[in-house]
Amino acid sequence: MVQCLSHRVELAFKDAMKKAPLYSKVYSLMDELFKFYHKSAKQSAGLKSSFEALNITPCTPTRVGGTRWLGHTLTALNNIWKGYTAIVKHLSQVSVTTGQSATQPKALYLLKLLRSNDVITFAHFLTDVVAVLAQLSKALQKRETCLYEVHQQLLATISNIKKFQTRPGPELRKVQRPDGSFAGESLTGDTTQHSAQMPKLLTALVETLDRRFSDIDEGVLCATKLADMNAWPASLEDSTNG
Questions:
Q1: Does residue 107 lie in a domain region?
Q2: End-to-end alpha-carbon separation of the chain, Å?
Q3: Which residues pair with 116 in a beta bridge?
Q4: Do 59 and 83 touch, CB atoms closer than 8 A?
Q5: Runs of H (alpha helix) within 115-177
Q6: 10 vs 26: CA distance, rounded Å
Q7: 240 lies in a domain?
């Protein structure tokens, strides 16, 4: 059952992402970056050289999807931020190098996404959101997790998600610069789409989590709350007043 509950978190996330068209661009960025370097030893070697030239520890793009999907998504996003400068440097070289007709269009496409203010800002916001959900998913995968704890963890997760509506998370703050740059790279455009889609996504995510976990507040599953000593009244008087 714990694994089933963990899967619900991913389904709730995927449901909510339908409210944010920018997500498709962020997913494309993660997926295409992985394919660009994973499928070509030449490009992989070129990226490694960029890391060495910048004296940065190599951190190549990783795949997104598969089992433990939220965890893979979080890793893919974090690896992009760690290797952002080297990735942009290498793609810039590929985009102007003659004799690479097959890869130049892809390099230009990826550079466009990596330099888009809307895409990069939304991707940082997404990193904060996925980090919260991945933590919940990981907790639900533990064998020792009791069903009554799911109530607590779900409420804590929803509370943290709601906080993003009024306060940016740690990753989003990194890209909210007055000069519109990130990691020394000037970003193009504004964040109009991000600003419009972020609140809708957060609202949708709370709703989808409530819907996917609605049965834990019904019948026998709801009764497991009794095992949570913190939910008990401090005294008989408190119980009567409640």
A1: yes
A2: 32
A3: 188
A4: yes
A5: 117-140, 147-163, 170-175
A6: 17
A7: no
pLDDT-based confidence at residue 138 (cuts at 50, 70, 90): confident
Residue tagged 């993660």 (tokens): 30
DSSP class per residue in 56-74? ----------SSSHHHHHH
In one letter, which amino acid is 157? Answer: T
CA atoms within 13 A on the CB side of 102: 4
Average pLDDT value for the chain: 87
Domain containing 126 equals 2-228
Q: Tell me the average pLDDT across 30-46.
A: 95
58: left (phi over 0), alpha (psi -120 to 50) or beta: beta
How far CA 158 is from CA of 154, 207, 209, in Å, comes to 6, 10, 8
> CA–CA separation, 112 vs 181, rounded Å?
14
pLDDT exceeds cutoff 90 at 48: yes
| 8 contact partners, CB below 8 Å, separation of at least 6 | 212, 213
Q: How many residues does the chain have?
A: 242
Residue 233 is assigned to a structural domain of this protein: no
pTM: 0.86
pLDDT band at 59 (very low <50, low <70, confident <90, very high): very high
**Number of domains comprising the chain:** 1
Tokens of 165: 């509506």
What value does the mean pLDDT take over residues 36-58? 95
Determine, yes or no, domain membership for 242: no
Alpha-carbon torsion 192, 195, 198, 199, what sign? negative
pLDDT at 6: 83
